[in-house]
Amino acid sequence: MENLAGEVVFITGGAQGIGLALARAFLAEGAAVAVADVDPGALGSAHAELTKQSGPGSVLALELDVRDRDTFACAAEEVEARLGAVSVLCNNAGIRVPDALPQLGYDL
């Protein structure tokens, strides 16, 4: 995708680190950005910073624990309802707790 102006980007883990850097970069290219994160404090700070960068209406912040599939589905619907169809999804969220890896995963 060469031109991101007017596109919608959804970033999980978007309130800190790589996710926040992605949000800044996509906004700089003219995209509308939805950032989702499990940390409400970091999410509030990121939303304030990103809104200052882009102006109101271009940034949506959602508290989201990506392990909760139902909440994730609701978040996706909210992003599309408020910003439009998602063009780019950055599944950035995730942590690995040492010794917990064997217990991780979805039961299908």
Automatic annotation (TrEMBL):
Keyword set, alphabetical order: Oxidoreductase
Keyword flag Oxidoreductase: yes
SUPFAM superfamilies: NAD(P)-binding Rossmann-fold domains
GO terms assigned for molecular function: oxidoreductase activity
Any Pfam family matching the protein: adh_short
Coiled coil: none
InterPro entries according to UniProt: NAD(P)-bd_dom_sf, SDR_fam
Keyword Lipoprotein: no
PANTHER family with a match to the protein in the record: 5-KETO-D-GLUCONATE 5-REDUCTASE, ALCOHOL DEHYDROGENASE, PUTATIVE (AFU_ORTHOLOGUE AFUA_3G03445)-RELATED
Family statement drawn from the similarity comment of this UniProt entry: Belongs to the short-chain dehydrogenases/reductases (SDR) family.
Name of the protein in its database record: SDR family NAD(P)-dependent oxidoreductase
Organism this protein belongs to: Nocardia flavorosea
Source species taxonomy: Bacteria, Bacillati, Actinomycetota, Actinomycetes, Mycobacteriales
